[in-house]
């Protein structure tokens, strides 16, 4: 997935990103609110050596202190320091627990030791830091003091051991700890920033994962690339389509999309124009019946004698779409109980409809029979175009037997619903039976944001009827693509 595709996926799945962002921010705020404030107090010690005023001795003592100060920092958290502090301050914790609250560091090339203590109470943190510094100084000076070496005592002379040994190192406190004003943990702004970043990363990761696992087709370009078939039309999604399936002479985006489909279908097969066109899909619910009905209606509006045949003998919908009688129709003709003229119904203008008739127990055999071929040839002899609405390709074998009797097929694919594998299997099924696939129809496609207002977006009020300039109406000639409306195209 390239950057452009990733950004489009984010825009398409923005609710996922928003939900992840809200959850992450909520978790960060909850963690901040439930965390116990921790305060930090620090003190600083200076390590010096007891030497004379000689410059060489001073330099030597400085090097000595720097060499040993790193080792001193490791002594701060030992029991020799923490245990007396626990007793002195009467802390209700063990020396080991106190050691976990203490941090000591000695910056390189210095003779300084920084001691930091963390606690849930600011005053107690300062008391512990000062007590640790005092106890630590005593421990280091005691460890550095030279030990007495026992030896013989001469008469009249005082033993060297009578004077207490003096440590060559002294530690002085350069900065005492004071009670901190603000806690160092939690940090609301830092937690909030981490929540925002984490939410965005989580949302982006979920979007990428869903896009990787989602094999449905989102654009008509992707459908053309997959099938290598011409995309004859893109039908926009209309929430009112279930209540008003037929577009008739409207000037809506959906009506214009079917007119464009009609035009593309007419011009795509100029040299060998098919008379019997099968309309099918991979799976149910992709809009094949709606496409077949409105395509037939659009052809009839253009002055083309058209017959719509409902050959979906399992779930017929053409009769209910046009409000016609379904009991007598195709199956009645196939079993010889009536002729085509007896059951043919008119849907207005130059559109005739042959409904499915009663649902038979053996639809696959009926649709693949020689009688079905005779019916289609007879309809093609009396009409310029015959549109056949058939069953979906993958669930049942009805269309596989019917397709070779037609002269071309239209494959309807629903946007963001039909998977790539389903489309691939459907096209392979049509190829195996030798049917010429005329192209694809991308149905229920989302309307681009820039085209949501006005009939044609940038064309503004195209389709609105302007006031006539003269009182007398003027009759205009019908255009080849359908009756011309006032205002022109």
From TrEMBL:
Its main location: membrane. Keywords: ATP-binding, Cell membrane, Membrane, Nucleotide-binding, Transferase, Transmembrane, Transmembrane helix. GO terms for molecular function: non-membrane spanning protein tyrosine kinase activity. It is a multi-pass membrane protein. Transmembrane segments: none annotated. The keyword Transmembrane helix applies. It is found in: Cell membrane. This is Polysaccharide biosynthesis tyrosine autokinase. It comes from Streptomyces caeni. The lineage of its organism: Bacteria, Bacillati, Actinomycetota, Actinomycetes, Kitasatosporales.
């Amino acid at each position: 997935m390239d950057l452009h595709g990733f950004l489009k996926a984010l825009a398409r799945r923005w609710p996922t990103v928003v939900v992840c962002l809200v959850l992450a921010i909520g978790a960060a705020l909850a963690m901040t609110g439930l965390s116990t404030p921790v305060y930090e107090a620090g003190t600083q010690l200076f390590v010096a050596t007891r030497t004379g005023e000689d410059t060489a001795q001073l330099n030597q003592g400085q090097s000595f202190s720097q060499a040993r100060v790193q080792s001193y920092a490791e002594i701060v958290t030992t029991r020799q320091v923490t245990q007396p502090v626990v007793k002195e301050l009467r802390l209700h914790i063990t020396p080991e627990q106190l050691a976990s609250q203490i941090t000591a560091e000695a910056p390189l090339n210095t003779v300084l030791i920084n001691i930091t203590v963390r606690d849930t109470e600011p005053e107690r943190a300062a008391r512990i830091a000062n007590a640790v510094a005092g106890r630590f100084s005593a421990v280091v000076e005691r460890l550095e003091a030279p030990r007495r070496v026992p030896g013989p005592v001469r008469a009249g002379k005082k033993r060297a051991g009578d004077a207490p040994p003096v440590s060559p190192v002294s530690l002085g406190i350069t900065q005492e700890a004071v009670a901190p004003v603000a806690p160092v943990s939690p940090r609301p702004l830092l937690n909030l920033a981490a929540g925002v970043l984490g939410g965005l990363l989580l949302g982006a990761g979920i979007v990428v994962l869903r896009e990787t696992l989602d094999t449905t087709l989102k654009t008509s370009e992707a459908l053309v690339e997959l099938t290598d078939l011409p995309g004859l039309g893109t039908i926009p999604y209309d929430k009112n389509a279930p209540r008003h399936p037929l577009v008739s002479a409207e000037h809506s985006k959906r009506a214009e999309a079917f007119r464009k489909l009609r035009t593309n279908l007419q011009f795509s097969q100029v040299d060998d124009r098919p008379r019997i066109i099968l309309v099918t899909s991979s799976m149910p619910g992709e809009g094949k019946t709606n496409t077949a009905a409105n395509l037939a209606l659009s052809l009839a509006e253009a002055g083309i004698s058209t017959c719509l045949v409902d050959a979906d003998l399992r779930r017929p919908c053409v009769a209910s779409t046009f409000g016609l009688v379904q009991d007598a129709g195709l199956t009645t003709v196939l079993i010889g109980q009536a002729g085509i003229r007896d059951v043919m119904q008119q849907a207005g203008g130059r559109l005739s409809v042959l409904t499915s008739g009663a649902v038979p127990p053996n639809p696959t055999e009926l649709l693949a029979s020689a009688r079905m071929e005779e019916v289609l040839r007879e309809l093609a002899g009396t009409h310029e175009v015959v549109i056949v609405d058939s069953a979906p390709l993958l669930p049942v074998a009805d269309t596989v037997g019917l397709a070779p009797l037609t002269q071309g097929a239209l494959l309807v694919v629903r946007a963001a619903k039909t998977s790539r594998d389903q489309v691939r299997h459907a096209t392979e099924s049509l190829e195996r039976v030798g049917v010429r696939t005329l192209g694809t129809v991308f149905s229920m496609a989302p309307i681009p944001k820039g085209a949501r207002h006005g009939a044609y977006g940038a064309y503004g009020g195209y389709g609105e009827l302007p006031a006539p300039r003269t009182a007398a109406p003027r009759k205009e000639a019908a255009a080849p693509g359908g009756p011309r409306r006032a205002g022109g195209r």
